[in-house]
Amino acid sequence: MNSRISMILAGVLLIGALIAGYWGLVLSRAPEPVAAPVVSAVNPAAIVEDQTRQPVVVLVHDAPAFVPLTAADLTIEKLHTAPVGSLTQLDQAIGRMPQRTLSAGSWLTEDSFNAGGPLARMIRPDERALAVAIDEVSGANGQLNPGDYVDVLLFLRRDESNEEQSAQVVLPAMRLLSVGDQLGLANDGKPAVPPPVTPEERAQAAQRKAAARTVVLAVPEPLLSRLMLAAQAGVLRLAVRSADEQLLSRYWAGDSDSPQKLESANRDLYQFAQLALLGPPKRVAQASGGGERPVRRGVEVIRGAQVTEQTP
């Protein structure tokens, strides 16, 4: 009896040992890796970034002038800051002809398809854009800006051909189109060239403006030759006019005061007959006896600010 009980107990202990060993083996195994959740291929941060960017139409390669653009010539790039006036859809450029050769990587605007350069788009048909040399003194110490109105002053020194030195306004109220390479607004009210965007570009533009040695004036066509004569005759200075005169506002409103400018300039001008745009003095025939004697024309001699006639 005791031997049978002992055998039963031994069998129970063996089974328990087997169970314990199996359980220990299961626990000692490394856990199976858990499958990672599927992540979308689009990064949420990239989605937010794309929403802040703006589309811009850009040339893929060089585009010659007067050749219609195709879809193969263009692409869309997304920029943090879109240039002013840039096109945003391919349909806005496909089939249109640029008016000048454009290089690859250039972003397109309406100006890319308009004839004429920036200066030509800043003046009216009765105006001309003419450059004038300046320095730190004649250019108002570098404080000139496109859109300012200036009076052009002429200083004539006393010399053999000029009996008395003089200073006078030869061109009143001329509009500044550019200072150095800084241009103002075109006739459509938009910048003639894209303004600098980054702080570095703005700093470089300010340095170039301060070092500018030329300005471009919008000169009424009848006064064009006067400015050329004045530039060769003496020293020019630019006197800035007050913004309270609202000259620029009246210009954008369509007012034209060229005739008044010409009349005023002619009235105030002195000691420089050539600049007054007047013809040579007329000689009156004197009657002698019963008939008129023919007028003998002399040779007009111009010495500086004096006009004389010499009879051969």
UniProtKB/TrEMBL annotation:
Short name of any one Pfam family annotated for the protein: RcpC
Residue span(s) of domain SAF: 54-114
Renumbered residue ranges of the record's region Disordered: 283-312
Top-rank taxon, per record: Bacteria
Protein name: Flp pilus assembly protein CpaB
Native organism: Pseudomonas nabeulensis
Gene (UniProt): cpaB
